[in-house]
Amino acid sequence: MASQVLVAANRGPLSYALAPDGALSARRGGGGLVSGLSAALAQQPGAVWICAALSDADREAVRRGVAEPGVRMLDIDPEVYDDAYNGIANSVLWFLHHHLYEIPREPVFDAEFRRRWQSYVTYNEAFAAALAEEAAEGAAVLIQDYHLALAPGMLRELRPDLRIGHFTHTPWASPEFMEMLPEDIRSQLVWGMLGADRLGFHTWRWSAHFITGAESDDARGIATPSVQSGTPRGVSHRRTAADASGYGPALFTEVTPYPLGVDADELRGLAHRPEVDAKLAALRAEVGGLKTIVRVDRTELSKNILRGLLAYRELLTTHPEWRGRVVHLASAYPSRQDLTVYREYTRAVADLADQVNAEFGTPGWQPVLVSVEDDFARSLAAYRLADVALVNPVRDGMNLVAKEIPVVSEAGCVLVLSTGAGAYEELGADALTVNPYDVTATAEALHAALSMPDAERADRTKRLAASATALPPAQWLTAQLDALRG
Ligand code: G6P
Q1: Which of 99, 224, 379, 404 has a C-alpha 20 to 30 A away from that of 296?
Q2: Co-location of 88 and 135 in the same domain
């Protein structure tokens, strides 16, 4: 039956594992997008989530027809998928939006890039076709993230009756970074996005980057978009008519921030399950009553884990009074290990943590405890125990960890927060904020955080938790659906 509400995202709510005996088992997908959307969609009966099969096990699940109700996994050719996901989405678009390139060497836009780009186009077409097939007349469609930047324009061509939204969970590249892309590619990206009726970002900052980027973009053969900066904010645009008779109708794409937050009741419920209590008891035994600095991330270049460890090392050097009195719990679970640069980064994080332990550790004290397990229960236990939360990404769409820790922490925790995180817009006032490149300032912020009086810490945590829960996932989704339906 055709659906009235559809979402499309590369990663689905579940992924499968294939046992040697051929049995398939399902587990929850990782990352902020999946946790936010899963909670929100649970409250939309009849909704369909279209996602890609990510692995051979997922593809096997599609072939056996075992997918959950409300989920449609697309079995995209594995080579096309690899080019689109690893080759373009994670190696080009992710790097642009997070400003991660090491400029003397990258990016390189050559024939190989063009070949991969064609796969990215094919991958987006597969999603657009599936959405067109599953959507009821006039349905609301919410397309997610940089993997699917072309799909809104493609879907608009196939199904002009639909209400199309797109939400970006990452930052949007500043116009200078967007201008690195070859002009025709940038034009495809911008026009793909402008196929949506509405575009959503986590913050004003990322919305403004999209709008100013679109304005400065003189898209070839297509009328230049013009920006509306009053209310509503957005981009007016018109395409050349197919028969070259002039311009098509003027269209307007509204651009709005929807800062995704966390659901306090749900999160606290999850954090007090017996499984988490048990992990907490084990962690307490390991930490032995010392103060804790907690971080939880995918091992992700943009999360700035190395500078976080350097700051901790500087703290122990310039404030030796903390030696033997604090433990840094760093959970950095592997991510995107198909990419060499991520494998190298993962190794560098482990090496640096070892160095800090070798330099300062004593028989009775291990300064850093690294965990590489993707273990949500253990993360929640660490949240409960946190005295200080370290969230120092160089650039991040939102960063839900910054919002989750204050909600769950038991004795209140001080948030050391990068100005590059989307969460800075809402949480900056009650956090200790740092320039993510400034290791010395981060070390001093850690010192101030560890030294903060209990009462001030508790007050700040209360305000942080209130801001963090202002727009929980279900409301975040409903607000977008309501706006789409006008
Ligand atoms: C970020 C992206 C998501 C992505 C997640 C995990 O949060 O915005 O779209 O799902 O990272 O990354 P992965 O590549 O493992 O899906």
Answers
A1: 99
A2: yes
- Give, for ligand 1, the residue of 28, 38, 145 to mutate: max count of ligand atoms closer than 8 Å to Cβ: 145
What gap in Å lies between CA 284 and CA 178, rounded to an integer? Answer: 47
Question: DSSP of 382-396, one letter per residue?
Answer: HHHH-SEEEE--SSB
Domain co-membership, 97 together with 118: yes
Residue corresponding to tokens 């987006």: 124
Residues 251 and 332 in one domain: no
Residue 331: which residues within 8 A CB-CB, separation 6 or more? 294, 295, 296, 297, 370, 371, 372, 373, 375, 378, 379, 382
Q: Are residues 233 and 308 in the same domain?
A: no
Angle, alpha carbons 418-350-438 (nearest 5°): 25
* Domain ranges, residue 423: 264-468
Residue minimizing CA distance to atom 11 of ligand 1: 31
Q: Say yes or no: 230 and 293 in one domain.
A: no
User: Taking a C-beta distance cutoff of 8 angstroms, is the pair 186, 218 a contact?
Assistant: no
Q: Confirm if 204 and 257 have CB atoms less than 8 A apart.
A: yes
Check whether residue 321 and residue 245 sit in a common domain: no
Query: Do 287 and 199 share a domain, yes or no?
Result: no
Amino acid at 96: L
Tokens linked to 327: 């433990």
Residue 292, Cβ neighbours under 10 Å: how many? Answer: 21
Number of domains in the chain: 2
451 and 345 within one domain: yes
pLDDT per residue of the chain (486 residues) written in tens, 0 to 9: 799 999 999 999 999 999 999 999 998 877 778 888 888 888 888 999 999 999 999 999 999 998 788 999 999 999 999 999 999 999 999 999 999 999 999 999 999 999 999 999 999 999 999 999 999 999 999 999 999 999 999 999 999 999 999 999 999 999 999 999 999 999 999 999 999 999 999 999 999 999 988 876 654 344 456 666 666 788 888 776 555 666 777 788 999 999 999 999 999 999 999 999 999 999 999 999 999 999 999 999 999 999 999 999 999 999 999 999 999 999 999 999 999 999 999 999 999 999 999 999 999 999 999 999 889 999 999 999 999 999 999 999 999 999 999 999 999 999 999 999 999 999 999 999 999 999 999 999 999 999 999 999 999 999 999 999 999 999 999 999 999 998
The atom number, within ligand 1, closest to the CA of 85 reads 14
Ligand 1 neighbourhood includes 279 CB (under 6 angstroms): no
Ligand 1 pocket test, candidate residues 7, 10, 11, 395, most atoms within 8 A of CB: 11
- In our burial notation (b when 16+ CB lie closer than 10 A, e otherwise), range 463-479 reads ebbebbbebbbbbbbee
Closest residue to atom 1 of ligand 1, CA basis: 31
Q: 164 near 152, Cβ under 8 Å?
A: yes
Alpha-carbon span 410 to 106, nearest angstrom = 44
